[in-house]
Amino acid sequence: MSTTYNFATVNGRQVFYREAGDAASPTIVLLHGFPSSSHMFRDLIPLLADRFHVIAPDYIGFGQSDAPSVAEFDYSFDNLTAHVAQLLDQLGLTSYILYMQDFGGPVGFRLFANNPSAVTGFVIQNTNAYMAGVGEMPAQIFLPLWEERNETTEAAARGFLAAETTKFQYQVGASNPAAISPDNWMVDQPLLDRPGHDIAHLNLLENYKTNVAAYDGWHALFRQYQPKTLIAWGKHDPFFIPAGAEAFLADLPQAKLVWLDAGHFVLDENAATVAAEIKVTFA
């Protein structure tokens, strides 16, 4: 089935989303990571569309969605989530599986916390809900930023907005780096480099500490509701390390954990594998 490319007005902002599949089928919502957008799911969407109704939004400030200035928009995970939630409401979606990667976790787990009964399952792909999953590299950069945002800590965090870091995030841990399409960073980087937009992303990187503060509450909800869960994890990810995948099993003991020969981003090499695992898990 073909993918359509759509915009919806949410709180006066244009939110872009990709859609595929039969609206009568179970819905899976694909929540992208940093510094990407729904573009990261371009290969996965058609592989799922024969069995699922697929929705893949771009957060405000990402991809093709509006990117207002920091004077016009509060770049926080609460606010990103609110816009995704309202998009899902506008689309009339009352039940869905959440696929979450990187920033997609903080958005998806907030959606779950706000309305647990709407979430029929998780696909967790290199996104954290446990400090055990934070690698040494991000810990050295972000723990000081969360403690105090100043000129020094902000300068270190800016490294995550650089072109060489964007490319590295896609290629690190790949079984064959030559199989990773340069379209990934060639699409992402110009959007990161929009004038004045660096502050928006720095605000989100600082605001990430609110996710860590929410971890205990999320864990309690995992234990209470036990959503069906597939964990598909790139085992060579230096940002969100394998211990983060294993940590979910303490609170979601029935989850299926699949290790992928990949890094932080897995879909260029493993879209077919991930799609097959999703279909088996949520048959």
Name a few traits of the molecule.
single chain, 283 residues, alpha/beta, 8-stranded mixed beta sheet, 8 strands
Compact overview of the structure:
Helix content is 43%, strand content 18%. By secondary structure, it is α/β, with parallel strands linked by helices.
* Tally of strands: 8
Q: List the helices and strands in order.
A: EEEHEHEHEHHHHHHEHEH
Strand order of the largest sheet: 1-2-4-3-5-6-7-8
Radius of gyration: 17 Å
Q: Sum up the overall morphology in one term.
A: globular
Considering DSSP H and I runs of 4 or more, what fraction of the residues is helical?
40-55%
Classify the secondary structure makeup into a structural class.
Answer: alpha/beta
Low-confidence stretches are none
Largest sheet: 8 strands, mixed
Strand coverage percent: 15-25%
Count of DSSP H/I helices: 11
What is the averaged pLDDT score?
Answer: 97
Measure the end-to-end span: 19 Å
